[in-house]
Amino acid sequence: QVQLVESGGGLVQAGGSLRLSCAASGRIFSINDMGWYRQAPGKQRELIASATSGGSTNYVDSVKGRFTISRENAKNTIYLQMNSLKPEDTAVYYCKADVRVSYNTARIYWGRGTQVTVSS
Asked: Is the pLDDT of residue 54 over 90?
């Protein structure tokens, strides 16, 4: 089995920064795409940043220039550096990974979510 363990959430003031981590562990053959999602109160969950195994990254417009996703493949870990945080960034942030658990099988795994709260 595979587990995604998230850390780094918390409370910050507007304009501050947080760095989220998501480490995958277990029977991992390799990891394809990984991404960060968030779900704000009363809103649908949205993909905000993704990273391919080759290092290509994409961002939703609302976080471009402020958030940076990165991968450390040797540790099966992704990060989300969040700068210039705004109150509207307040949400539960989820990590998702497309994990190859064998040479021909891939499965989607989700973290349990970590709360990010940005005060005004």
From this structure: no
